[in-house]
Design brief:
Blueprint lengths: L1 H11 L2 H6 L4 H56 L3 H74 L5 H29 L3 H32 L1
Pfam families: PspA_IM30
Keywords: Coiled coil
Protein name: PspA/IM30 family protein
């Protein structure tokens, strides 16, 4: 059937080529499998009908064969009883049933051949369907992998060039500028010290020496008095 050719064509196609088209491989594969299932259901219906025809002709063939055998036995029995006329009638009827049997047997053989062929085709369809289901799982995995790889490649191609990366660069420059401004402000503060600032620092620094010197003088005076 046409669906099998379409599915075989799909399995031979490149997954990446399918991704480049407006076709979703996963959805397509699922649809193809649904189409195959519908074909199998139709085939099963056709096989069932053919089997019914086969059975009907088989039943009619068996009935005709039974009548042929029965009329033969009845003709013999009539002769054994000396009734030749009855035996003749039985043989005549046997001949008619034989003709019917031959025709039914011919029809049955044709029906059986057709049914066997349909059974074989149905079995082949189911085998093919099973193989396609297994291939579908593999193709779906490949399709998902290809999608992921394509997405990663597209992301990586622009990595470091997007707004976030550029923003980091701007912020780095801004921090460097802030640090430079802080250092410059420190230098300016040092260069703008007033005389009062310097004298205050001097007084602050010398106060400790004078106090210590006064202590030493007091110790020296006390030592002289003891002498």
């Amino acid at each position: 059937m046409g669906i099998f050719k379409r599915l075989r064509d799909l399995t031979m196609a490149s997954v990446n080529d399918l991704l480049d088209k407006a076709e979703d491989p996963v959805k397509m594969l699922n649809q193809f499998l649904r189409d195959m299932e519908e074909d199998i259901l139709e085939a099963e219906t056709a096989v069932a009908k053919q089997i019914a025809i086969e059975k009907k002709f088989k039943q009619q063939t068996d009935e005709a064969e039974d009548m042929v055998n029965r009329r033969g036995e009845q003709a013999m029995k009539a002769l054994e009883q000396g009734n030749e006329e009855l035996a003749r009638k039985a043989l005549q009827d046997k001949k008619e049933h034989q003709t019917r049997y031959d025709e039914m047997k011919r029809q049955y053989d044709i029906a059986k051949t057709n049914a066997d062929q349909l059974r074989a085709q149905l079995s082949e369809m189911k085998d093919e369907f099973g193989k396609m289901k297994n291939k579908k799982d593999l193709l779906v995995a490949r399709a998902e992998s290809a999608k992921a790889q394509k997405q990663i490649n597209q992301t990586m191609s622009g990595f470091g060039q997007d707004n976030a990366a550029k923003g980091f660069d701007r912020m780095t420059e801004k921090v460097l500028q802030m640090e430079a401004e802080a250092e410059a402000s420190k230098d300016i503060r040092s260069s703008n010290r007033t005389l009062d600032d310097e004298l205050a620092q001097l007084d602050k620094g010398g106060g400790g020496v004078e106090d210590e010197l006064a202590v030493l003088k007091a110790q020296l005076a006390a030592k002289k008095q003891q002498q």
